[in-house]
Amino acid sequence: MSRYDLTRIPAVKTLVVNRWPQFILRAIALAGFVVAILAGLFGTPVGSRNLSIVFVWIAWWALLILAAVPLFGRGWCTVCPIPMAGEWLQNGAVLGPRKKETGDWRLVTGNLQSPIPSLRLRQWPKRFRNIWLQNGGFALLALFSAVVLTQPKVTAVILAIFLFLAVGTALIYERRAFCRYLCPVGGFIGLYSQVAPLEVRVRDMAICASHTEKTCYTGNADGYGCPWGVFPGGLVKNTTCGACMECLRTCPHDNIAIQIRPVGADLTVARGRKLDEAFKAFIMLGSAVVYSAVMLGPWGWLKTTAYNVGSLAWLGYALAFLLFILGLLPGIFYLVTWAGMGQRVNLRVVRQRFTANAYALVPLGLAAWIAFSLSFVFANISYLWPVLSDPFGWGWDLLGTAVTPWTPYLSRIVPILQTLVLVGGLAWAAVTARKIAEEKRGGTALPAIAYCFFITVGMLWLLIG
Amino acid sequence: MAAHWLGSKTTVNVEMAAQTAVSSSDDALAKDREWLARALLIHLIFGLLLAIFIANRLDRSVEVRAVMPEKGGFLPDTLTAEVGVPLELSLISDDVMHGFAVGQTDWPAVDVLPGQMTEVTLTFDEPGTYTYYCTRWCGANHWRMRGTIEVTGDEKGETPALRADAASVVEVAIAQPSSPPLYVELELDIDAPHTVDVHLDNPPSAARGETLDANISSSYLSRDVYLTQPPFEVWQALRLEPETAALSNSDVWDLVAASWHSQTTDEKLQLGQTLYNQNCAACHGNSGAGDGVFGQEFDQATAFTDAQIMLGASTAVLDGKIRRGGMGTGMPYWGTIFTDHEIEAIIDYLWTFQFPRE
What we know:
The complex is a heterodimer of chains A (465) and B (358).
Chain A: E1 4-5, H1 10-17, H2 19-42, H3 51-72, H4 75-79, H5 84-91, H6 105-108, H7 132-143, H8 145-148, H9 152-172, H10 177-182, H11 184-192, E2 198-202, H12 205-210, H13 215-218, E3 219-220, E4 223-224, H14 246-250, E5 256-260, H15 275-296, H16 300-307, H17 312-339, H18 347-358, H19 361-380, H20 384-389, H21 413-438, H22 446-463
Helix pairs in contact in A: 2-3, 2-9, 3-19, 5-9, 7-11, 7-15, 15-17, 15-18, 15-19, 15-22, 16-17, 17-18, 19-21, 19-22, 21-22
Chain B: H1 2-20, H2 25-58, E1 62-66, E2 74-75, E3 78-82, E4 87-93, E5 98-102, E6 110-112, E7 118-122, E8 128-133, E9 146-152, H3 160-175, H4 182-185, H5 206-211, H6 223-228, H7 231-240, H8 249-261, H9 266-284, H10 307-310, H11 315-324, H12 340-351
Parallel strand pairs in B: 1-4, 3-9
Antiparallel strand pairs in B: 1-2, 4-7, 5-6, 5-8, 8-9
């Protein structure tokens, strides 16, 4: 498949390799993050008038799901401020690597050495080198979403927990372990980054093979060893690449490129398909369906139940939610996969096909999330103007937009866009399912396509019907 | 704290690096860049925090948060001010739309919107205790949303010698009606039941009553009768007069209606209707039938359309109920909020539920 190497353009290469553009973007994001926490804690408890809710759950979310993920994959992780403090502590620097007393460049990389001198940073435990914790974290957070998404104080506390967890993890484990193994957002960004038309890859594997130092992994004077713990030479998918740009800085042979590629290229790569990622696909797809039903569906009681965190009814809702995303959705998919394979196969093979086929749900899930997000992003983005002028609801008017009334945008076009996105997602899922089925002789994509079809109809009914 | 920590660590690093490593111009440049990056971060984050803090302190107005009465109503619910000194209030709601008005003044009510500051500046001319209250039907306990402003100081424009006396006099004048309410003066028990056994086929018509050539004593048309007598008693007295012998029962009710109607004006009824719809209809209903949206929350909200209840009550009794409230129901007290004239207008309007205008 054809690729276009963006880093052959000198301006792009400079922009990416130079630390300042990224640093400044991250610093601004960090400032926004801190203000969002403060606004949540000390600002008005009215969600629509508090920066924390409007900025995080409407503006940032829109940016993430409508632009960053589909276009740039892990583009958000490139500028995410959450791990910054932990990285500074690990690195002993905020900008770039600094030579330390030992004169050993391996220690210059910082993220391998604890900021507490007597402590060695540990490797992340083997048993958790997967995204199950991220799956669990996301599912857990999703149970409280009705409260998290509407109450500024709760949002602030969650953001602060993210920050403390990231710093805490960085003090014990090497590199950006929080990002790779714990961040509930990072998990699905990784999954959906497989559809993005951008990738970081090596140009020539032979060069990597003969390069004994592997500075991309260990670091040198120009950059840190891969903060995500990935050897770029082995990259076949976007999922674990944090797009942090360090390897473009550390590679002495200029062998790493950012490339434009066909969308969804990773989905049909048979290597490295995993059950945890397959389940992530179900968790995300199921959450999009449940969120649509709770927040946009016609059932007031469901919304009330989701909101009454801690009540008996809510426990029932939580249980049903978990059962739906972790039991029902994968269960039916497993059965249809099995049904599509005939009687003669053993269960281990069914499981392999189940995992492989689940990657067809990635474009469908992303489409479902985009369609769901479209329904509230354009309706509510006008809350941003007053909040930018008065982030805390304290009566400020910084930009003169404090009393801009709520105006839904594009309300006529949104249902059309949603339909297009969902139908497009279905088509993409179907094509992907066929390609995955063709990997094995006699494989059929029909059951998976039928499954995707019913999910799409359900989403269309919830969002538009 | 963080800045200090980063700073001290760097010093150590730099010293150690100087001891062991060969310093090159590249290293120096990297060091400069690192310092620049740190300075930038610290300025950005701490500058922002400082700016927020200062901006917050600069706002000198008093913040009054409005929340559902079950969660506290107006916070705070007592304010103080001085005569002639502007009291700047920042009003903000934490939940639904509330309203803000100060009783017995003619400052227009403002809406208090969720999460949005509404700035109000009040300047009092006279000392006293003022009541501020919610003007939007925010919930069943809406009427509990009240607070008081204690205004101290001297009345404007008085000579110093007179100030002390004047202040106390005016305080009485504001906090209480200028004379005791009529029901106190008449020693009426406004909690006593006042239903009468009356059955009307049609509502009495003031217009018809005016056309009847009954030639009754003018004492029946007096202000005193209107204020102190229940319509039913007036009807009974009229019924005994020889002048009404030729009239039917319903004709006599028309005469009573005409008498009641003669005590008000269109302007007053208009004012009464406006105030009623804003303040009373939440429980008593726009139609006066006791079917307002919040009426169901209480045992009962009196139906002003019920002849047996209304025709046995005098204006003085209604005045007392409105001023004092209570009665073991959810009826609020309005004495500190409405002026005498406003209460009169409301009662005039209440009578129209029995004696329609046409």
